[in-house]
Write a structure and sequence with these properties.
single chain; about 150 residues; mainly beta; Cathepsin D, subunit A, domain 1; 6-stranded mixed barrel; two-stranded antiparallel sheet; 2 helices; about 40% strand; globular; binds zinc ion
Length: about 150
């Protein structure tokens, strides 16, 4: 039996992935780069592609013990345990924070922001337009965060 794949459409447009453009800076040299990061509630961490870390010259920090990663559905990530992390300064809409990101090989996205990040900043996502706003940040998410002025009316 063959199941037909249905693509859900929304007002005639296929809903794509929700991404944000974030800035990443090396801790040591402060060299920066802008990347398109995927917001993915199916990922239990923050993830960066190992190919990208090499290209950017991000310094890897080896974990004392490799860390097995589970997907939200409980299965183990197919890329195997995480052995390295990178520490970078991350910039987005007035946010600036030092972030430790797990390094994983062989993945399509440069950076994936998973559950911990989504839960902490609780961004407001417009699932129709893909717009992401940081309007619901908790206080602990950083004094660096300057809210954008609300539009009146
Ligand atoms: Zn925040």
């Amino acid at each position: 039996m063959e199941k037909k794949k249905k693509v859900r459409k929304l007002e005639g447009k296929t809903l794509r992935e929700v991404t944000v453009k974030i800035g990443l800076k090396r801790i040591d040299t402060q060299e920066g780069v802008t990347v398109e990061a995927l917001l993915d509630s199916g990922v239990m961490g923050l993830v960066m592609s190992s190919e990208f870390t090499k290209k950017q010259g991000f310094k890897l920090k080896k974990l004392e013990r490799p860390m097995n990663v589970r997907n939200v559905d409980g299965s183990f990530n197919k890329e195997g345990p995480i052995e390295n992390i990178v520490e970078v300064n991350t910039y987005y809409q007035g946010h600036r924070e030092r972030t430790e990101i797990d390094v994983i090989g062989g993945q399509k996205w440069t950076v994936i922001l998973g559950i911990p990040c989504l839960a902490r900043h609780n961004p407001e996502i417009d699932w129709r337009t893909g717009e992401v706003k940081m309007t619901r940040c908790s206080e602990e998410c950083g004094r660096q965060w300057r809210p954008v002025q609300e539009k009146l009316g």
